[in-house]
């Protein structure tokens, strides 16, 4: 018998006043329980009980030993219960690293409703514009562009990779709308900053071929939100995700251009995914939060 079970049996015997009753509570026969207690006494080199045919009473050494181990086993039981609950019930701190522009629009607005449903989960949310992040170093969930390579992670699609070329109605009224991808080059373009590389927009033509344009303009930024605000202020053309500017397009604040030609800026074609480590027993807090996001957001967006 393992030592932990023997210690539990020892405390049960004190609590129930008999070896047979203590053994039954742990699924042990009276013979097995008695043998286990004797082995524990031999290992400790002390006598834990004074035994008679009708009565079992702890020795002084047994009472002192029980006083030491009882709180330790209670703490261990509490820790094991908490660990089980983290897989069975959403609880604990959920550490998330999320792409800033997406999180501000499609994650943060749903935190209150998630907490209302799962009040035992606390959220630790870090926002970033970095790409290529994966769950590691205490991070439970990453909300990012695209899926990481390899089989160590699982991704859940939150938003499509569709991009929309657009400009404000006032800009178009003053400068006109490009009728072809080549005409885009005659307009100021608001672009993502990717190290020292020149910004490139890629268009899929009606023929199926792709056309790459080295665009330029008055603003480069690593923040899609900054580019969106600049476009709303009539600074030029912008190519941004539908999940970011869909509301602006629907409200008429931005006007789509060359809608029949799929386009994306350089390496920013990927969809948005919630990514966690692949594991046989995923903590309930992660399962619950991903399910909440999927239910809150239209997967077609």
From TrEMBL:
<protein>
    <submittedName>
        <fullName>LysR family transcriptional regulator</fullName>
    </submittedName>
</protein>
<dbReference type="Pfam" id="PF03466">
    <property type="entry name" value="LysR_substrate"/>
</dbReference>
<dbReference type="InterPro" id="IPR036390">
    <property type="entry name" value="WH_DNA-bd_sf"/>
</dbReference>
<feature type="domain" description="HTH lysR-type">
    <location>
        <begin position="1"/>
        <end position="59"/>
    </location>
</feature>
<dbReference type="InterPro" id="IPR036388">
    <property type="entry name" value="WH-like_DNA-bd_sf"/>
</dbReference>
<dbReference type="GO" id="GO:0003700">
    <property type="term" value="F:DNA-binding transcription factor activity"/>
</dbReference>
<dbReference type="GO" id="GO:0003677">
    <property type="term" value="F:DNA binding"/>
</dbReference>
<dbReference type="InterPro" id="IPR000847">
    <property type="entry name" value="LysR_HTH_N"/>
</dbReference>
<comment type="similarity">
    <text>Belongs to the LysR transcriptional regulatory family.</text>
</comment>
<dbReference type="InterPro" id="IPR005119">
    <property type="entry name" value="LysR_subst-bd"/>
</dbReference>
<dbReference type="Pfam" id="PF00126">
    <property type="entry name" value="HTH_1"/>
</dbReference>
<keyword id="KW-0804">Transcription</keyword>
<keyword id="KW-0805">Transcription regulation</keyword>
<dbReference type="InterPro" id="IPR058163">
    <property type="entry name" value="LysR-type_TF_proteobact-type"/>
</dbReference>
<keyword id="KW-0238">DNA-binding</keyword>
């Amino acid at each position: 018998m393992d030592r932990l079970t023997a210690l539990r049996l020892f405390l049960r015997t004190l609590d129930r006043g008999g070896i047979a009753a203590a053994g039954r509570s742990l699924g042990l026969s009276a013979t097995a329980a008695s043998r286990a207690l004797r082995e524990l006494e031999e290992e400790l080199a002390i006598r834990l009980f004074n035994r008679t045919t009708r009565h079992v009473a702890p020795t002084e050494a047994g009472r002192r030993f029980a006083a030491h181990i009882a709180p330790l086993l209670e703490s261990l039981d509490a820790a094991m219960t908490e660990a089980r609950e983290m897989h069975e019930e959403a609880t604990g701190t959920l550490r998330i690293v999320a792409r800033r522009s997406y999180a501000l629009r499609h994650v943060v607005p749903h935190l209150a409703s998630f907490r209302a449903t799962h009040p035992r989960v606390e959220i630790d949310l870090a926002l970033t514009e970095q790409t290529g992040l994966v769950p590691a170093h205490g991070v439970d969930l990453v909300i990012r562009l695209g899926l990481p390579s390899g089989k160590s992670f699982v991704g859940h699609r939150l938003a499509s990779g569709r991009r929309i070329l657009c400009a404000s109605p006032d800009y178009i009224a003053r400068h006109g709308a490009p009728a072809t991808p080549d005409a885009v080059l005659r307009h100021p373009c608001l672009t993502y900053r990717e190290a020292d590389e020149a910004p490139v927009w890629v268009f899929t033509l009606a023929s199926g071929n792709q056309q790459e344009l080295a665009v330029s303009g008055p603003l480069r930024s690593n923040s899609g939100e900054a580019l969106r605000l600049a476009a709303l202020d009539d600074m030029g053309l912008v190519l941004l995700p539908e999940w970011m500017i869909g509301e602006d397009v629907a409200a008429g604040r931005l006007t789509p251009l060359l809608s029949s030609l799929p386009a994306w800026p350089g390496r920013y074609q990927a969809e948005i995914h919630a990514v966690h480590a692949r594991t046989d027993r995923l903590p309930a807090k992660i399962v619950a939060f991903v399910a909440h996001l999927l239910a809150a957001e239209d997967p077609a967006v």
